Amino acid sequence: MDRIETRYKMIIAPEHSGKTVSKVCTEFGVSRETWYKWKRRYDVHGLDGLKDRSRRPHRIRYQKITEELEKTILELRLNNRFGPRRIAFRLKKKHGISLGTKTIYSILKRHKLNVLSVKLKRKYKRFEKKHPNDMVQTDTKGPFYLRGSRDKQYFTHCIDDCSRKVVSEWVNRRSTNESLMVLKEWITQNGKPKKVMHDGGKQFVSKRFQEFLQDNNIKDKQIPKGYPQLQGKVEAYNKILITEFLDVEELKNKNDGKKKYGEFVKFYNNEREHGGIGGMTPAEKFMKCLKHSMTIG
Fold first, then answer.
1. Within the chain, how many helices (H) and strands (E) appear?
2. In what order do the strands lie in the sheet with 195-198?
3. Which residue, among 182, 226, 178, 220, has the nearest Cα to 203 in the 3D structure?
4. What is the three-class DSSP state of 107?
5. Which one of 134, 156, 167, 284 is at 20 to 30 Å from 231 when CA atoms are compared?
6. pLDDT tens per residue across span 143-196
7. Domain ranges of the chain
8. 33-46: per-residue pLDDT in tens?
């Protein structure tokens, strides 16, 4: 069986067999994100979309708006609530299609999807550190509950202020142990940050957490109460976590949830394009800025 036939059987399996996407992915030995990648390509290009593509950059001066392409744009808007710029990033990265934001906006407007909700104007100045590890924002999100369970569940994150790269773990409680575990994991994977920003939660102002910062020469920055926007990067990640993971994933139990969340974090860092950093992934932004800072240094 060649690759195209295998991929075709994989993407039609849920509809034909009644199995879940997760079950099909396990049987074919692929991740959920890989299944969705080939499904999107098939929906747009048919069997041609299941062929391997060259990794050389595409240079497309004009793109005809086919019915299939318009369908993809509308699905990204309705299912993911992407704006024109984010849709353009996704089309370029996943489908090799270059399309201007004005063209995408015109399509959305024609279908009366140019406005999904009204947002209040930003009343605070946005900031961003220039280099990776200049500062990480840390937070604990929760509690949330799995279906049929009364056990509290949490997520604890460290997110780089410059690149939005994140280290995050599904944990059982809001505590110093879990917060230190994630911070240490950040340091192991990405190096030591110069500063840690937090909201003043008990787990972050505890003696043990503060001593760890002091022993490692890491500055502590606590934001004033009532100003969560000062931790905008981690607050934005929390929204992504809800809309793109908790609201869409079928989590059978805690172990299943932890496994899928680990896959989601990898997808967020390495595959998901981010509008706030020019359509790059957090991992791409982290490495680009790291190399730049090393060159300057």
1. 12, 5
2. 166-171, 153-160, 136-144, 195-198, 219-222
3. 178
4. helix
5. 284
6. 999 988 899 999 999 999 999 999 999 999 999 999 999 999 999 999 999 999
7. 3-110, 136-296
8. 888 888 888 887 87
